[in-house]
Write a structure and sequence with these properties.
globular; Rossmann fold; 7 strands; 5 helices; alpha/beta
């Protein structure tokens, strides 16, 4: 299940819907608007294999890795968020929720990097 954080601009969420990307909105479908980051993490633990898609850099923290969810921080221009979300979700290394689980990921225009719980440093994958 893809979960869209309230940090994602509404026009970008509308583009994702137009492109057929399925997601649930955290602020209106799963929790109250303005939910704290630590409460989002607790919520994710209760959902089935969620991937949080966010523009909040606080979610790119190795301490937040957990086998029941994945966190993806999009470090891109606001107007490019939907494009990179769709591109990320189609990437051969992250296409399925099982490929994303247990990772804290940062998506940038030049590459993707991620933490796993046991890693000493991030793994970097260049866009192809």
């Amino acid at each position: 299940m893809n979960v869209l954080d309230e940090s994602v601009p509404r026009d970008q969420a509308d583009l994702l819907r137009l492109w057929g990307v399925r997601f649930r909105l955290i602020a209106s479908e799963l929790a109250q608007p303005g939910i704290a980051d630590e409460d989002i993490v607790s919520l994710l633990r209760r959902l089935k294999q969620p991937t949080l898609l966010s523009r909040d850099s606080d979610f790119f923290d190795r301490k937040l890795t957990h086998p029941r969810y994945s966190l993806v921080f999009f470090d891109v221009l606001p107007a490019e968020t939907a494009f990179f979300m769709r591109w990320f979700l189609r990437h051969r290394s992250f296409r399925t929720s099982s490929q994303r689980l247990g990772k804290v990921i940062r998506v940038q225009p030049s590459h993707i990097e991620y933490w796993t719980r046991t890693a000493e440093r991030t793994v970097t994958i260049k866009w192809q």
